[in-house]
Specification:
The chain has about 375 residues and is an alpha/beta fold. It has 16 helices and 16 strands. The chain folds into two domains: about 210 residues, 3-Layer(aba) Sandwich (Rossmann fold), CATH 3.40.50.2000; about 140 residues, Rossmann fold.
Amino acid sequence: MWSEQRLTKSSHIAFFISSHGLGHAARAAGIMAALHELNPGLHFEIFTAVPEWFFKDSLPGPFTIHSVLTDIGLVQKNPFNEDVPRSLKHLDSFFPFDSSRLEPVLKIVSDAACNVILCDIAPMGIEVGKTLGIPSVLIENFTWDWIYERYVIKDKRIKVHIDYLNRLFDSADFHIQTIPVCNPKHVDITVRPVSRKPRTLPEKVRSELGIPGIAPMVMITMGGIPQHFDIMETLRKHPEYYFVISGGGESFIRDNNVIVLPYHSDYYHPDLIHASNVVVGKSGYSTLAEVFYSGIPYIFVKRPTFRESEVFTPFIKKRMNGVGIPEEEFNTCSWLSFIPDLLKLQPIQRKQPHGGDQAAEYILGLLDNLCRND
């Protein structure tokens, strides 16, 4: 069992997080919140290009944000489609890491006396750990080299980045995979889905939104990529439902039964999920995980060009009350025909441990062993 007294002697942890959307930040925040619950003395040095407000909204304990681009991921045209040529251009300018990019980060991590580096698929953290001799922990359900393999047929030049990242990811000292896992490997621990937990009662959230207690609430979300929707007129024709669109506009808008929330709203995303009766959104990790723990039905937009979807689709159909639709059906709102039957389903009760708690226990045990050996 980990020792809080021992850990507070060296309580700074570096966390490098991919800024591809907000899904990786949400998973990382779920783990950091669980770590803070177990040891409030931990202080996180967070390296990412994700906005600071996201972590202020998500974390109960102390942290410091360092605005650093830690990886490239994929350049997105929109929530459903990636831009491979632009992605390759950015990859060519970012990898391999050079000293001018790493030196400021190395100094921060060294000065903070971090004794472990956590990485949600941000390879910079692993490179920093290797350079400073600090153990690194890779946290993933996929890695970028695995994602890029799909694009070799489009442009063979991406192969050099696949090889480079494969070696770098394999050099992490410890490895956590989070379900649903895209490329299962022999790792130190595999944990259940990781998400941020809700913290406000559903009835309070619905009351603040002006949604009657018995009215069906349908949440529409595309995760961490802002998107303007052209479906408002169709939704207004269904006053029997209240629609809450996350990230659908520049400000809060209420138009009869349609509520549009800005990219950064006053409402905590997991609270909105757990207050809903049905969620409609792309099949991204953080939305999937939050809906998984809410147990409610999920109408998910499949992304056939993104390799992760090949794993998510069967997982959702087997472990959740999920209905997959193509992007065209989302845009035409034909998915509305599924809602009456989905509303008849009872929420799935999740009684097993939360993946964020499992990961936090493992990391604290690891830290305990590292401190014990100092």
